[in-house]
Amino acid sequence: MIPREIKREHVVQAIDEIKRGDVPNARNSTKFDLVYSGMVFPPKYVLTIAGRYATGSELDLHDFSGGEEANKYLSSLGFEIKHKADWSQRECYFAIWAYDQLDQDRSR
User: Fold this and answer.
1) DSSP bridge pairs for 105
2) In this structure, what are the phi and psi dihedrals at residue 34, rounded to the nearest 5 degrees?
3) Quick check: helix, strand or coil at residue 80?
4) What is the pTM of this model?
5) How many whole angstroms separate alpha carbon 8 and alpha carbon 105?
6) What is the pLDDT of residues 24-52, one digit of tens each?
7) CA-CA distance, 66 to 78, in Å (whole number)?
8) How buried is residue 56: exposed, middle or buried, by Cβ count under 10 Å (0-12/13-18/19+)?
9) Do 41 and 17 contact (CB within 8 A), yes or no?
10) In the chain, where are the structural domains located?
11) Per-residue pLDDT averaged across 95-102, rounded?
């Protein structure tokens, strides 16, 4: 279960942290993306980190489910969740371009 202490600002803090680092391969999303400021993030991983900002410790990935539970919670906080199958070809090219830009920024 997702702690109700997690608020929008905690999710934004988690996203900012993820933007400064990397998403571990094992934590990449498989079916859904959280879309924020033109970038995509794995919803369950974002909530795991947001838990640390809200409660002082990261959520265990087994304490809540990805998909419906995570997506519904994030949507209730005003975040856009998009099914990977719903991405248009143009959006996919943009996402690849955006990741390339992020990688280039990190290597500087």
Assistant:
1) none
2) -90, 125
3) strand
4) 0.78
5) 26
6) 888 888 899 999 998 999 999 999 999 99
7) 17
8) exposed
9) no
10) 8-107
11) 68
